[in-house]
Structure formats: C-alpha cells, structure tokens
Amino acid sequence: MNTEDPxxxxxxxxxxxxxxxxxMMIAEAEGNSIRxxxxxxxxxxxxxxxxxxxxxxxETEAAALDALAQFAERLRNVPRKxxxxxxxxxxxxxxxxxxxxxxxxxxxxxPIEIISGREEARLIYFAVSHTFPGxxxxxxxxxxxxxxxxxxxxxxxxxxxxxxxxxxxxSYSTLYLNNDDKLTSANFKRAMMEAELELQPLIVAxxxxxxxxxxxxxxxxxxxxxxxxxxxxxxxxxxxxSLDKLTRRAIKAGSVQxxxxxxxxxxxxxxxxxxxxxxxxxxxxLDISSIKASQVALREGLVFDMLGKxxxxxxxxxxxxxLSNRYSIDIRQSSRVEKTATQLFELAAEPWKLDRETDRELxxxxxxxxxxxxxxxxxxxxxxxxxxxxxxxxxxxxxxxQKALSLLVRYHRRKIDKEAFSTLPDEERQRLLRxxxxxxxxxxxxxxxxxxxLDDINLRIKDGQITVIAxxxxxxxxxxxxxxxxxxxERLTHVNIRLKAEKSA
Length: 505
Known about the structure:
Blueprint lengths: L10 E7 L3 E10 L2 E11 L14 H17 L8 E5 L1 H5 L4 H11 L3 E3 L2 H15 L6 E7 L4 E7 L2 E8 L3 H8 L8 H15 L3 H7 L3 E5 H13 L7 E2 H14 L12 H20 L4 E4 L4 H10 L1 H18 L4 H18 L9 H12 L11 H11 L7 H12 L15 H20 L12 E5 L2 E6 L1 H6 L1 H15 L4 E6 L2
Parallel strand pairs: 1-4, 4-5, 6-9, 9-11, 13-14
Antiparallel strand pairs: 1-2, 2-3, 6-7, 7-8, 10-11, 12-13
GO molecular function, one term: exopolyphosphatase activity
Pfam family, one: Ppx-GppA
EC number: 3.6.1.11
C-alpha cells in the first residue's frame, strides 16, 4: 500500500458491511467537506445468511470474503490509517465471526470494527449534519438498513436522542413477506404491525423531543424516493399518501420486481418490500407527514469521523466522563493509577512493541475506569465494572474496544483467567495481557490511595520482565505493598509476564 504518495494522504476509504450489501466509498478531503472519487457496492444478503443458530453459513461467508477481495483492489493507494471498516446488525448478532474477521483483516490489512446500534446511529447523524452545516433545524434522521433501523433526533452536529431498532428490509422481507414469493395485502400488513410494535416504546420520547424536518438515509429510503419519482407519485419527497399508492401498486402486481422499475436494482427489489413496510409503519406511528431522502449514509459518517479526529476523541472523552460521573468514580485515585500506568507504558512501549497511540489510549481508559463497579459493591467490584463496560452503549467506541476495556477492568486485580482471553487472535491476546500487566502493577502500587510520589521506586522493563526495585526504607514503610508485589509475581507468570521485586543496595 503506497503511503508516500502526497495525493493519497488526502484520500479516505469507508467500508460498511451491512446486512443487505457491502458498500465501499473512497473520498478526498475538500476543505471542510469531502468529494467522492470512487464507490463500490456488492450485494451479499448477509442478514439472510444466518442459520437458525445465528451462524453465518459457509456460502454466505465465502460470498462476503469475495466482495472484500474486490474492495482490496481499489484500496491500494489509500493509506491504511485512512481506512475504516465497520460491521453492523448482522455481524453484531452472528456467533461465528472469528474466521471471517481474521480473513477480512488479511485481505484488507485492516480489522473490522463491529459497532453498536447507537454508535451506528451517531455516525449516520454525523453524515447528515455535515451535509446541512448551516441548518440549525431540529431534525429527525431515519436510516432503514438490512437488519436494523436507526432513529436520531438532533440539532446541528449534536444528536440528542438515538435508538437502533431490530428491524430491517432483509430481516422483514425474509420473515414476513416471502412465504409464497407473492406480496399480498395480508403479509404486508403483518410486517407493518410487527414494525409498529417495535416502535411503540419510542413514541413518547420522540414526539416529546419533536422535530422541524425529517431526513431519510440509506438504501430503502433512497430507493423509495426514486420509485415514487419514476412512477410520478411524488417529486421524490416521501409522504404517507404517496407511499400508500406505491405499496398498493406493488401488492396488485404481486411483487416489487413485477413493477419493472428502472430506478431500482434487482437485488434491492428483492428486499425492498420489507423496507417499505417498516418505512410506512414508522411514518404512521410517529405521525410523520413527509421525508426528504438524503444521499449520505453511514459511509460518509465514517469519513467525516476520520477527518474530525479531535471531535471523535472528544466524544470518547465525554463518554468516559459521563461514566465517571454516573458511577461516582474516585477521580483522585483513578488519576494516580493513570499517571503510573502511563509511566510504565513509556518504559514498555519499545521492548514490548506497543502502539504509542492506540495501546496507550486503551490503557488510560482502563486506568480511569478500573473502579467503575465500586458504586454497586466493593466486593467483586472489578466484575461489576466489567459487566457495565461490556453491556453499555459507549458512544465513540467499537464493540472490540468495549470488550478489551471490559477485560482489562475485569482482571486488573485478583486471579487472571487466561481462558477469558483465549478467543482473541494471538497478537491481540499478547498485547492485551501486557497492558493488563501494566494496569495491575499501577493499581497495586496505589492500593493505599495516598498522594505520595513513587520516586523511590525504580522500574525496568526488558523483554517479558518487569523489575521493581525499592530501597529498604520504602520497604519498611510499605510492607503490605511489598507483600502484594511478591504475590503478584506469581499471578503474572500465568500470562507469560515475569515480575521481579528487588531490594536496592
């Protein structure tokens, strides 16, 4: 991959591994905006490729990897650091993604980030807000994907209400509209009823927040707008009346495919009926009069997110600050541990080949949140904190980052269960265990919760060994900490880290 080309340094690529199609967009930074210079869409029907046990079938996985191999050809002049590849609803649900994730990384030289529904919603809204930068209207943004539907309310670039609902054009077409390969009024109404039931819990909050305009994104809504325009049922604006007319025509014809519309691809026509049912149900349930279709979606949000690294960092920092406030974390203690953990990282980065950006950041996050579970109970607080981190929606974080953070918090004290790390790739496992060793040592050295400096302690890291050297005076003053260090040396041997505690002469 050519990263020396001065032109390529302004090029970014975003890959959206959706439940209906895989999309790749290559764009160039242009002032405060972007200009698309290439795109590729590969229909994979990933959402329909899960078996009853929520496992990707071999055929679906092979088709998905073939699509990524074609993407790889277009990415040769894009710097690796300017590529993001995210998985959404289907990859969130699939139980056997290890091989697919590994092969995807091999093909593109970049790992898949599986993101939560609310993080997907944030990125979608981010794309729309950059498309209308001077517009200060309160807007409702709707994105109907293959497996989930995102609904976001916000003003400017700040979303204030976000939800991801488990309904999409592929899943609904498969579950409710393909029984006899004929679209009927009865099965269309059933799909709508299911969507209305899913939306019921959202009605009060969304109508209370209100909006000035509604904008729709992604395949279903763009396809609906194009179909309405081609049939001259509207100027492309989606209304309940025009959508009713469109669905009646499709039901009369027996399928959307039978309408023979030029504006919709064969692949999209096979799943659009489920999306139309969700769209019409959403408009009726939330009493939406009209929707404007936007040309941007998750991919543009990913590119804008890469361009606005400072904004992305602010989102992550705000998420951590919110957790600290909500769970009343002792900031003075977390700051002590963070400072020492950072010092240890600087000693370990080179010999342990740690990434000075991503690894350091992950260690800092873990240090700030290692006592997150204290508010629930002091006993087993590390387990409570890990559960919160793994099961919360952390805006700005991928699910892999959440899992890594959860593991560090869970095992920053007491016994280390190597099996908990066994599903990670070898390189990732070693990296995380080494960061865990640094976090455990930092937390142990500050177990007394005092502000006293650790200037008397000399720390050395070489190969797989951490050496702690302390003078006799310090040992006399901190006998419990010294005893803990000796015990910790035994625990760390189980994760291939050697901790040696020595007395200085």
